[in-house]
Design goal:
Elements (H helix, E strand, L loop, with lengths): L5 H8 L4 H7 L4 H20 L2
Helix pairs in contact: 1-2
Amino acid sequence: MSKETLPMIGRLLGHANHQSTARYAHLDDEHLLDAAQQVGDAVMVLLACL
């Protein structure tokens, strides 16, 4: 959860295919909640501009 993309992490690990990296990647609830909050905040800003 270091803000790096799965393809970048996969290359660092020597994976030929990003699907190999995705198989082992796990998201915890805190990061999912943070991402949902960021999306919600962005939508509120856009709606406020209407």
